[in-house]
Design goal:
The complex is a heterodimer of chains A (441) and B (228). Chain A has one domain (44-331, 374-425): TIM Barrel, CATH 3.20.20. Chain A is 34% helix and 13% strand. Chain A has helices at 17-29, 101-114, 127-132, 149-154, 181-187, 206-220, 236-246, 265-270, 275-288, 306-314, 324-330, 338-343, 368-371, 376-400, 419-425; strands spanning 34-35, 49-51, 72-74, 83-85, 89-91, 118-119, 136-140, 157-161, 172-174, 195-197, 227-232, 250-254, 263-264, 296-300, 319-322, 414-416. In chain A, the strands form five sheets. In chain A, strands 5-15-14-12-11-8-7-6 form an eight-stranded parallel sheet. In chain A, helix 10 (306-314) crosses helix 14. An eleven-stranded mixed sheet of chain B has the order 1-2-3-4-5-6-7-8-9-11-10, with helices on one face. In chain B, helix 1 (12-24) links the parallel strand 1 (2-6) and strand 2 (30-34). Classes of the chains: A alpha/beta (441), B alpha/beta (228). The interface between A and B is large, with 35 and 42 residues.
Chain lengths: 441, 228
Amino acid sequence: MDKTPQTEPRQSWTFSNSINSEIRRAADTGIYDIRGGGAKRRVPHFDDLLFLGASMSRYPLEGYREKCETAVTLGTRFAKKPIELKIPITIAGMSFGSLSANAKEALGRGATMAGTSTTTGDGGMTEEERGHSEKLVYQYLPSRYGMNPDDLRRADAIEVVVGQGAKPGGGGMLLGQKITERVAGMRDLPVGIDQRSACRHPDWTGPDDLEIKILELREITNWEKPIYIKVGGARPYYDTALAVKAGADVVVLDGMQGGTAATQDVFIEHVGQPTLACIRPAVQALQDLGMHREVQLVVSGGIRSGADVAKALALGADAVSIGSAALIAIGDNDPKWEAEYQALGSTAGAYDDWHEGRDPAGITTQDPELMKRLDPMAAGRKLRNYLNVMTLECQTIARACGHNHVHNLEPEDLCALTMEAAAMAQVPLAGTNWYPGKPGF
Amino acid sequence: MTTTLDMTATDLRAVNTTLQAAARAQANEDYEIINPRGAHAMACGLDGPLTVTIKGSTGYYCAGMNKEATVTVEGSAGPGVAENMMSGIVTIEGDASQYAGATGHGGLLNIKGNASSRCGISMKGIDIVVHGNIGHMSAFMAQKGNLVVLGDAGDALGDSLYEARLFVRGSVKSLGADCIEKEMRPEHLEILAKLLEQAGADAKPEEFKRYGSARKLYNFNIDHADEY
């Protein structure tokens, strides 16, 4: 018997099992992988930052006793009726069509109970959503599905969507299997066909045109509604500056961890910048224009906890927005459906074939039987609880840093654990007074 | 009685506020706007019966999101005239710039001159009659409604078309992806005759050709990837 020692079988890092499985899938089907959610790759994120807390030079506030405010007002620049929120966490735009009506209702209920706003999506405004959302932001998208002046006027704010973090420069596709009669009716298209959402607006090109488009929207709505401009995390300094130039009241900046209902995996994973890398350039643009805090900045893409909220605010955001986390709070990818996720070839926590409309949790589906699994009242309460917890966590950190309002958090409260995070957040690497690119070094 | 608003003395906000209030009051009154000087967003968001005549040319988005009102521009119109129109009648006596009638859901947009590129882009039920020619990429991703062109159409007409009907009397430089010439059936001649009459167009339905979607791109098929 040959006793020559054998080298242990070695997997390639370049050609990992996961990569190889995708190559085989592509070879079998001839089509790229489409999925929901945001970037799954590890990118520098808020976890790479730490708060310093109070010490000899900073006095903390008493937890459970001393007040730490969380209210935020969005749309103070031009709108006659800015939006007043109790907490600096909003619900991001997600469409009826990609989400079930029950899911949209749950988001509205939860947001309203927590004192914040929710947002429509591609596909128009539903009665369930308007009826259960005290403050509703109406998205103005390239497809203009369901767009009409009545809904525009009964919205509390208007969000002109230029891009989103999961796919800056990309449009969308709602596949035919989710196009029920109701969804098709709202979009003026036949039942069962794929519905393409355009990547560019049909009637304006560039910030000069957008300025005039915003003038029209304001004229139609009596200058009452705050106008947000949402951009994907592509060129945050210039995108923010141009949004301000175009007349935005609020800039919504969505990093690459921000989710989507259905997009090519190659787009989600390879286009755009991490949320952490986007915030400081955007804040710098606002500061350079003298507009920081006058035009509010809402950051989204991978916000999961009160710590993430606090870090985004410390870097200069006025509020954050959550999408994926809100869906998880109301039941998305819950392990209680594990057997069904397995049957779909996935597992709880990894299920992202939202475009197929077979979501066991009843959230990213239009199947009437699956939709029934989501009780909008119970799900709304879960979202409220989650939003409350995030707010309490954010307050805890702000008090520990000596601030009586979460907006008083600042970059000087932070340090970074990695060189990359230090460079992106422009806060010192832990244990040093230096970050890459710091002037004077 | 016609009320006259002079834009050398009244600013855009005041003009639109006046018109929008009159439309909402369902008063069916007549308004005339003089000296428009190419102002943007004029007479937009009207949502009731009202007759507005603009004596001159307008800028972007004139009569945007119009509902029920009758708006006439006695001049030419800038980009996005009657964009997302819901109902009513908008008439342009001169030419219209890009994106005329974009995403419109209903009503009639009647352009007596020519319309530039992307006329009727993403239209969702509006009827558009252009007495002259239209530019390239018109009716791109058009979903519903009718686009009638008495003159010629530019490149890539009806690219990625859904269920909108396109009627062209003159030549078509090229058809876009998934747009084909289709049989003109009696029901189409009837629709066309009605639209031509409404628009006061001097043409016979039999002189037109009909174009529509081949419906090959309705559901993604890898074998059609070369079409894009």
